[in-house]
């Protein structure tokens, strides 16, 4: 039997659901959702901000759900949950944190605003949850800044896998009401026509997350469930085996793009960030004071910190020319770079030329299947033909530069540039995705980060944050592949 307190809470929940319906935050009809799915019910909880009485009551209900939990601060997921978290914080004298949605790109470049110390616990507040991705992304940002996130609270649970996804990532989700509650309350209170009640009930049933059904029907994507160590064991190429081994041992899928222009700065940056990376990517031709000593020191740092050295030379000429560019000139790249990359545009001759120089030295190559810059032409059939070219040259080509999963072969590496802790772009066409998007959603193996690290106030700390965010996203991807 319900206790009086529970009954009272329940009554308040029902009133809020009815109020939300009255102000058109819940609508019935025929709607096309962002995902393209047709839905007979539509939630627009943002309209709450125009109704202070609803905002206050919602914040109280959310607080009542979590008041027995212990935490140091609250963090609302932008945007609607931000003012709700503010109300909860002020009414209950609990500090609040704000996760920046856009990187500032100047000043302290802080990701989390507000005062906290490493190890503090933070409770996430959200208005509505479907798959749980926004809460997970917020949790990853918070934990990469040293906070501990174990719980989240949401007003409306759409029952579409959010609870399970967050649970797989160690986060308990509390909700004030579910989509089924909305249907029950509004039909009970005569706010819906009987045929609409049936339509919505059918829609909820059809879209409800059913883990068991999905485990049986979904075939996990192979390199989403294989661990780095398992993939290392599958590789015949010595360098890819070593690289997967480093990723496993160092718990890092981070490649630093060390695009600085002085040797001193380069060596200092690499030494500081070395413990957090599995790879350092260079553009030696931008160094104003290049000499052989620099690459000798770089290779010593690679041994000291156990990472792979990748010269981002992007060879793009006929076989005979790239042989000279790779082995000779000023840089003698083949003498020190473990890994290089090439455009597929000249045809397989470019790989054959590079292989002639590099294969006997244990070197390997990536093909550029896609690029991160806006308007680039590496897409569609060009990308597909690049993958085919790699498959035909697996003894020397070990993977791709790409922004999506281009091959399901678990021995191929997918490496993605254009990564910052917040999505965005620079003013010359570079496009940024987040670690959780690149590693978690797109299934890439290694994220390449340049300015996000070397322009940070503390590059070692930034590298550590990216390392944690990238590795968390990899773990989340593995956990999700097990559920779905
Ligand atoms: N890089 C890209 N996009 C690409 C390829 C390479 O950004 O498609 I191919 C390189 C350029 C730069 C690094 O060296 O990756 C990204 O640096 P920032 O994180 O500073 O944008």
From TrEMBL:
UniProt keyword list: Decarboxylase, Glycosyltransferase, Lyase, Multifunctional enzyme, Pyrimidine biosynthesis, Transferase
Active site annotation, chain numbering: 312 (for ompdecase activity), 314 (for ompdecase activity), 317 (for ompdecase activity)
Subunit structure: Homodimer; dimerization is required for enzymatic activity.
Pathway it works in: Pyrimidine metabolism; UMP biosynthesis via de novo pathway; UMP from orotate: step 1/2; Pyrimidine metabolism; UMP biosynthesis via de novo pathway; UMP from orotate: step 2/2
Catalytic activities: orotidine 5'-phosphate + diphosphate = orotate + 5-phospho-alpha-D-ribose 1-diphosphate; orotidine 5'-phosphate + H(+) = UMP + CO2
Keyword Lyase found: yes
Gene3D superfamilies: 3.40.50.2020, Aldolase class I
Alphabetical GO biological process terms: 'de novo' pyrimidine nucleobase biosynthetic process; 'de novo' UMP biosynthetic process
InterPro entries, per database record: Aldolase_TIM, OMPdecase, OMPdecase_AS, OMPdeCOase_dom, OPRT, Or_phspho_trans_dom, PRTase-like, PRTase_dom
Homology family: In the N-terminal section; belongs to the purine/pyrimidine phosphoribosyltransferase family.
GO molecular function, one term: orotidine-5'-phosphate decarboxylase activity
Protein's organism: Elysia crispata (lettuce slug)
Transmembrane regions listed in the UniProt entry: none
Residue ranges of every copy of the Orotidine 5'-phosphate decarboxylase domain listed in the record: 253-466
Domain of life of the source: Eukaryota
Keyword Transferase: yes
Function: Bifunctional enzyme catalyzing the last two steps of de novo pyrimidine biosynthesis, orotate phosphoribosyltransferase (OPRT), which converts orotate to orotidine-5'-monophosphate (OMP), and orotidine-5'-monophosphate decarboxylase (ODC), the terminal enzymatic reaction that decarboxylates OMP to uridine monophosphate (UMP).
Official protein name in the record: Uridine 5'-monophosphate synthase
Annotated Pfam families: OMPdecase, Pribosyltran
SMART domains named among the record's database cross-references: OMPdecase
EC number: 2.4.2.10, 4.1.1.23
UniProt binding sites for substrate: 259, 281, 372, 430, 450-451
């Amino acid at each position: 039997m319900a206790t009086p307190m529970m009954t009272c809470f329940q009554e308040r929940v029902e009133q809020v659901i009815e109020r939300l319906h009255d102000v058109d935050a819940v609508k019935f009809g025929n709607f096309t959702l962002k995902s393209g799915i047709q839905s007979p019910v539509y939630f627009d909880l943002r309209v709450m901000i125009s109704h202070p009485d609803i905002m206050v009551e919602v914040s109280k209900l959310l607080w009542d759900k979590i008041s027995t939990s212990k935490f140091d601060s609250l963090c609302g997921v932008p945007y609607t949950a931000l003012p709700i978290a503010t109300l909860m914080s002020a009414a209950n004298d609990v500090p609040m944190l704000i996760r920046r949605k856009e990187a500032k790109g100047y000043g302290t470049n802080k990701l989390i605003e507000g005062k906290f110390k490493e190890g503090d616990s933070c409770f996430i507040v959200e208005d509505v949850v479907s798959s749980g991705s926004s809460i997970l992304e917020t949790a990853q940002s918070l934990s990469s800044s040293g906070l501990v996130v174990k719980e989240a609270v949401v007003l409306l649970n759409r029952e579409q896998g959010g609870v399970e996804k967050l649970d797989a990532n160690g986060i308990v989700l509390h909700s004030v009401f579910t989509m089924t509650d909305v249907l029950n309350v509004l039909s009970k209170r005569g706010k819906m026509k009987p045929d609409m009640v049936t339509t919505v009930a059918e829609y909820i049933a059809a879209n409800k997350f059913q883990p068991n059904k999905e485990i049986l029907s979904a075939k996990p994507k192979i390199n989403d469930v294989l661990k780095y160590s398992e993939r290392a064991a599958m590789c015949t190429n010595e360098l890819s085996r070593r690289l997967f081994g480093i990723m496993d041992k160092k718990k890092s899928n981070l490649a630093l793009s060390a695009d600085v222009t002085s040797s001193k700065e380069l060596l200092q940056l690499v030494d500081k960030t070395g413990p957090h990376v599995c790879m350092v990517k260079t553009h030696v031709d931008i160094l104003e004071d290049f000499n052989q000593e620099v690459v000798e020191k770089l290779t010593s740092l690679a041994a000291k910190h156990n990472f792979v050295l990748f010269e981002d030379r992007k060879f793009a000429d006929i076989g005979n020319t790239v042989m000279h560019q790779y082995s000779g000139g000023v840089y003698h790249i083949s003498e020190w770079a473990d890994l290089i990359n090439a455009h597929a545009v000249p045809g397989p001759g470019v790989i054959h030329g590079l292989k002639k120089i590099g294969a006997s030295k244990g070197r390997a190559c990536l093909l550029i299947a896609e690029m991160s810059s806006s308007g680039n032409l590496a897409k569609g059939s060009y990308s597909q033909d690049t993958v085919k070219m790699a498959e035909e040259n697996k003894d020397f080509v070990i993977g791709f530069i790409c922004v999506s999963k281009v091959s399901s072969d678990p021995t191929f590496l997918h490496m993605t540039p254009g990564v910052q802790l917040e999505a965005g772009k620079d003013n010359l066409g570079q496009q940024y995705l987040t670690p959780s998007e690149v590693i978690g959603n797109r299934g890439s193996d290694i994220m390449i980060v340049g300015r996000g690290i070397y322009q940070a106030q503390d590059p070692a700390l930034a590298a550590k944050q990216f390392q944690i965010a990238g590795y968390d996203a990899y773990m989340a991807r593995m956990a999700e592949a097990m559920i779905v």
